[in-house]
Structures are given as structure tokens and as C-alpha cells.
């Protein structure tokens, strides 16, 4: 979905209800944090984050969020094993309610690639986890943001439940999002930047200022 907040401000894809699969890599991991903060700036409510492989970084979220109090709206639980991750996903349905605006499941497949699992367990556990996430999306009017570490047979079920697939790539001008009907078209003139937290912080701040300005115009 395309959104224009203001001239000269890089666009970010908006997350409607359903499952959104973001294809990314470690160099643009901050893209996940930025989409979460941006979504909560638009919508009231909380985000439920089922974390793995250290994707949820408090320091990054603090730098991106407009205030530390804002981070109270992000409820986070972290898994360190495949079985813990299964438990987190199984409990999602009980945690999601009318105050949930977003569910975040980054690096969905990370723990299921462990050598500690027996033959056939990774596939069964991914299928079960996918079932839990799909159930949440079907039963609740909520956006779900998912990423995976690899695109292979193990993660085919993850792609299978995606209502939208997005990709973010690093360019010399900044991050470039591509999705069905969306593409980042606005960059910052000749001010070349890398995909850094400073870049994301500046973008989110300007997007929020643009939204507040638009609200004031509407009220006037």
C-alpha cells in the first residue's frame, strides 16, 4: 500500500490487516524496528513481539521511538530455543485482543535450523508455528509482520500464509522498499546515506511531523 506523508519524505509501506512477509537481511534489520514504530505512530494499541536471534534491540527502538514512554506499547518476549519459540507462537492467540495493533515475528525459522532437533522436527515445528500465526491473522483484525532468514523448503509454509510479500534492499541513497503496488520513490536529494539508525530516526521524525501538520490542517 502506498502512503505519502509529505513531499521529500521517503515513503514506507503501510501494514494492513493480514500477514506481511518482509524479505530482508541483517544489514537492514533496523527496517523491522522502523516499520513497527511507524505502524504504532499511525495506529493506537500495542505491538506483540515474539523475538528470536536478538532481533528486538532496545537501544535501536529507543533511538527510533519519539519517547521512552512510547516503548510501553511494545510487548516483547524472546525465545532462545525452538521449543520456547513454539510456546510463544502458541500463546499468541491468547495474548492478542482488541488493543493489539501489530504482531511481530522476526527470523521465524532461526531456531528451527538448530542441530539439536531430530530429523523431521524442524518441518513439523515450522508447520505448527505457521498454523498459530495464521490463526491469529484469521481470527483478529490485526497486522502481522514476519521475516525469515532463508528462502528455502523449510520456510515455504511461511511464504504460503503471506497476504503480502515485501522486500527491502540497501542502496547508496537509503533503504528501498518494494511490494505489490508500492515502491520507495523518494530519496533525500544528493545527501547519500546508508541504512543506519540515524537515517531511520530522521525519516520517522519527519513523517510524524508531517502527520501532525496534516491533522492541524484538518482540524482548522
TrEMBL record:
InterPro entries annotated for this entry?
Answer: P-loop_NTPase, Rad51_C
> Which residues belong to any copy of the Rad51-like C-terminal domain?
44-149
Q: Which Pfam families match?
A: Rad51
Q: What's the protein called, per UniProt?
A: Rad51-like C-terminal domain-containing protein
Q: What is the lineage of its organism?
A: Archaea, Methanobacteriati, Methanobacteriota, Stenosarchaea group, Halobacteria
